[in-house]
Amino acid sequence: MDDTAGFSALRQVLIELFGSQAADIGRDATAADVPGWDSMQMITIILTLQERYGLLLSNQDIDRLHCVGDLADQLDRHLKASGATIAGSGP
């Protein structure tokens, strides 16, 4: 399902970094599917999620990220565990 709070937040970050073409990115997309998504952009994505939502990823967590959905799931788990909500997505 694409409409989780984590996926929506991640998609917004991707749109900010890659422009409007990122609005069509699905959960199964990989960095290879997005022009300009290289290792430096991955670091920027992770740091942005850390700054905005407090998401901290270990090296092992990062190694397990194979697609956008994997990162969105990590963010969803973090939000659930911390009790945090994303503006506009809470009750």
Which structural traits does this protein have?
single chain; 91 residues; mainly alpha
Describe the structure.
The chain is mainly alpha-helical and 91 residues long. Helix content is 54%, strand content 0%. The longest helix has 15 residues, at 39-53. The mean pLDDT is 90.
- Summed up, the helix count is 4
How many β-strand runs? 0
Low-confidence stretches: none
The major β-sheet equals: none
Helix content: 40-55%
Distance between the termini: 19 Å
The overall average pLDDT, rounded, is: 90
Gyration radius, in Å: 12 Å
Mass-distribution shape: globular
Describe the structure concisely.
With 91 residues, the protein is mainly alpha-helical. The chain is built from four helices and no strands.
What is the topology?
Blueprint lengths: L4 H14 L20 H15 L5 H5 L4 H15 L9
Helix pairs in contact: 1-2, 1-4
